[in-house]
Each structure stands twice: as C-alpha cells, then as structure tokens.
Write a structure and sequence with these properties.
Elements (H helix, E strand, L loop, with lengths): L1 H22 L4 E6 L3 E3 L4 E9 L10 E2 L6 E15 L2 E14 L3 E5 L2 E5 L2 E5 L2 E6 L8 E2 L14 E6 L9 E11 L5 E4 L2 H12 L4 E5 L6 E7 L2 E15 L5 E3 L3 E10 L2 E10 L3 E3 L15 E2 L1 E7 L3 E3 L4 E9 L17 E15 L2 E14 L3 E4 L5 E6 L4 E6 L3 E5 L25 H9 L2 H22 L3
Parallel strand pairs: 2-10, 11-16, 22-29, 24-31
Antiparallel strand pairs: 1-3, 3-6, 4-8, 5-6, 5-26, 7-10, 8-9, 12-13, 13-17, 14-19, 15-17, 16-17, 18-21, 19-20, 23-25, 25-27, 26-27, 28-31, 29-30
Helix pairs in contact: 1-4
Length: about 475
C-alpha cells in the first residue's frame, strides 16, 4: 500500500510540474550595449529586449538600469514590436537607458547589472571612449507657444507643444521643462522632484488621448537657444498624444517649486520659489468626411518596398516586403493581407510593428513580409493588390500609398497548382499531394500537448502494472 501511495505521489508531482511549466510563459531577455565610441554631447545607451508569445497587453516586469560612474542618466525610451510567425504573434519590448557623459576620456565599465523583474543580468566588462564635443556652441531651436515672449533674465517653467491645432488622430508632443538663462547667476536646486513632478504630470495629461511616453525618468539637461539667447533646459516629461475624439484639450497653469540659495559667508540661506507655467489650449480639427475617417492613421508616411525578384515563373515563389514609416499612429494600419485570386496567391509570412521616439517625435514602422506565388503568366502591377490609405497632414487630404512594383511572370498557367518541378521550389516539392490530416497534425502539435500526452501514457502504464501485480 505504501508503494502504491508513493507511486501516485510521484505521478502527482510530475503532473504539477508539467502544468506549472505550461502555465508559465517566461519572457526571454537579451541585453544590448550601444556605441562604445561617442562624443561628449552624445548619449551612451544600455538596452534590454523582452520577447514573449503572450499578449501585447501582458504586464511587463519592473526594471532597473545601473548607475554608471562619469555618466548621468538622461531617461528611458521604449520600442515595441509584434511579429507574426507561423500564425503565432511574437511580441518584443525594448527599453533603452540613455547616459550623458560628464567629461571626455576613456572609461572602464565593470561589474554592472541590469535588473528585470526578479532576474539580474550581468554586463560583460567594456570601455567607453568619449571624445570632446565637436562644437559645444551649437544649440537646438526649441518650439514654444507663440504667445510666450522672453524679455527678462529670469528662469521660467513651461509646458510646450509642437502642434497647437492638430487633426483628430494626429500626434502632438507635450513637454514639461524648466529653463535657466546661461547669464543668470542665481543658484537653484530642485525640491523633491520625485514627488512634485508626478503630481504635475497627472494634472497636465490630456484626456481621451492615446499616449506614447518618451520614458524620461530623471531630468534631461539640454543646451538650447531661444530668441538667440542661450539657456539650459531641464526637461522633466515628454510624450506624444493622439486624440481619439474632438474634445477640448486645456492644460492648466502649473506651479513648479525650486529652492533658491543665497550665500551669506559660509552659510547658504534656502528659500522656496514658485514658477508658474502659462495655460495651454490645443484646438483639435476634425478630418474631412470620409468612410474611413476613423480607421486610418493620420500623419506623414512613406512606403519603402522590396521584392526578391522582378521576374518570376508561374509557381515560383517570390518574397515581397513593404515598410510603412511615419510619425502617425501606425497601430491603425490595416493588417489584412490581399486575397489570392486567379493570377496571384498570397501567403503572409510576418507582420512587424515598432514604435519608438526619435528626436522630438514618436515614429512608427509597420513591415509586412508576404510570399507571392504567380499562377498565370503576364505583367502584374502590385498596386492592384497593395494599397494603404491614410490622412496626409501636409496636404490635409486623404492619401494612398500604393506599390510601384510590376512583376513580369513567364511560364505556363499553373491552373491553381504549385509548380514543383523547379529547383528553387524544393521546399514546396510534393505539397499538392499532402494529406489534409498530415497538415492538421503538424499544426496541432506543440510541446505542451506532447508533455501532456507523455504523462498520460506514463500514468496508464503505471496503473496497468499496479493492477497486474500479484496480490
């Protein structure tokens, strides 16, 4: 009896471990180190990528990038991509921490780790060469509201946008910054920004908008020029928003608190000072009437396409890649592949979408890879199959990106069957003779089901042996 209990105990543990392994779908983590030779005015980057077959809305783990000696953290950006592989969606999330060097030189980085969830990933020792800045007097022109006039030598706190009258669905970027003139000699220090900044951000975030955050976790220190006057900008927040409906967006005046230091001998007298930002109103514009006005991206886009061969034979597959790049919300692109017809057969291979900040905007990229198998000879313009509609904010009209590729197909009509007599088509050889049950079994099998099947067989064998055992 004790042997029987121990056997069932072992079987129970095996089942528990199997179901535990099946229920967990851990994310694969890879780390990346950016360019190791930079100038003093460039950022050094550390990144990690999470890859998982789970839903894109799955909860992401917490993370922590290391503090690097002689470098200052500037903020975190993120990119996300979804790739359809063999009918399964694989999602990737990339987080990049930017570091600004304090000075030029050759810096050794040793014994540093990136923490992701409850895992720690050690970085191999490396060195970063920081060259002196080529031109430290080069400044970036900052776009500010037109009613802001800088007339004094005082610092100021401001909420800025790159679009005051965007269309519904068009991206506009908001930034929260504190500007200090380089000619201002007053000493300041920040007062509990870890509490103050999140509270201000919650007050300024617009409602009814899709947000893509630039991931600034600590103030970014940037040299800028405003009205030909040099400033140091401390940027606390930056995000791009896409309005989902025409609702009034009003950002109230916000008060930002800093500590002013006045030196009296060896002592410093501290006094809180408040800077108030000007209220900001963003007036949205409706799109012109169109049947697809609520289902297409809004922005500036371009189509970059590539094909493995412009010339083909009937039954000989060719690979077509189309990348849609722009500053609009690429989530709204239509993911439906063209339908096969009498002339062409289309097989979707993968769909990849990425979204990442670049300079002052959020840019997206949607890439489709599709296998095309011509079935009839002739010249075929792919513009009959591949078209993407969007609203062009430059022309303020609906526009269409169409393929410019023309495929020249030779050979005989395939009559809807693949030609498998070409050497290039080895992977398709004999596929027309495949049995449906074989294909279905290949699609059904996966590791978790095999584990379950093996455990069931083991259980049946053990039960049979116990039953056959002489009493």
């Amino acid at each position: 009896m004790k042997k029987l209990e121990s056997i069932f105990h072992v079987v129970f543990i095996m089942f528990a471990l199997a179901f535990s392994a099946i229920g967990q779908n851990p994310m694969a983590v890879t780390t990346q180190i950016g360019a190791k030779t930079i100038s003093q005015d460039e950022n050094f980057t550390l990144s990690f990528t999470l890859t998982s077959a789970e839903s894109a809305s799955a909860t992401l783990p917490t993370y922590q990038f290391p503090e690097l000696l002689n470098f200052k953290k500037q903020g975190v950006s993120r990119a996300k991509s979804s790739k359809l592989i063999n009918g399964q969606m694989v999602n990737s999330f990339t987080f990049s921490q930017y570091y600004l060097p304090d000075k030029s030189g050759n810096f050794e980085i040793n014994n540093e780790f990136i923490e992701v969830g409850n895992q720690t990933f050690r970085l191999e020792p490396f060195s970063v060469v920081v060259n002196p800045a080529v031109d430290t007097d080069e400044f970036i022109e900052e776009l500010l509201p037109s009613d802001l006039v800088i007339t004094s030598n005082d610092p100021f706190f401001v909420i800025t946008t790159n679009q005051l009258k965007p269309f519904v669905g068009q991206g506009f970027t908001l930034k929260m910054s504190f500007f200090v003139p380089e000619t201002n000699t007053q000493e300041f220090e920040f007062d509990r920004n870890d509490i103050q900044i999140p509270a201000l951000i919650s007050k300024m975030k617009p409602k009814f908008c899709w947000e893509e955050n630039f991931g600034i976790t600590t103030e970014q220190v940037i040299k800028v020029s405003l009205n030909k006057k040099k400033y140091t900008e401390y940027r606390f927040f930056q995000a791009t928003y896409f309005a989902l409906q025409n609702q009034r967006i009003r950002i109230p005046a916000l008060k930002f608190r800093v500590i002013s230091l006045t030196r009296k001998g060896l002592e410093a007298v501290k006094k809180p000072i408040y800077f108030t930002s000007a209220p900001l109103e963003i007036k949205l514009r409706n799109l012109p009437h169109h049947p697809l006005s609520e289902k297409v991206p809004v922005g500036n886009f371009q189509l970059i396409e590539n094909i493995s061969s412009m010339n083909s034979k009937t039954g000989q597959p060719i690979m077509y890649t189309a990348s849609l790049k722009g500053d609009g919300n690429g989530v709204l692109w239509n993911n439906k592949s063209p339908e096969s017809d009498y002339f062409m057969n289309f097989v979707p291979i993968s769909v990849q979408t990425t979204l990442a900040p670049f300079q002052e905007k959020m840019f997206g990229n949607k890439t489709d890879k599709i296998q095309i198998i011509p079935k009839q000879p002739g010249k075929f313009a792919l513009s009959h199959y591949f078209n993407w509609i969007y609203f062009n904010v430059k022309t303020e009209q609906f526009d269409t990106l169409s393929s410019k590729i023309v495929v020249d197909v030779t050979g005989n009509s395939s009559d809807h069957l693949l030609q498998t007599d070409h050497a290039e088509d080895e992977v398709y050889r004999g596929i027309e003779n495949k049995k449906t049950l074989d294909v279905s079994w290949g699609r059904w099998v996966n590791w978790s089901q095999l584990v379950n099947l093996m455990l069931m067989l083991i259980t049946i064998v053990i039960a049979f042996l116990i039953w056959k055992k002489p009493k």
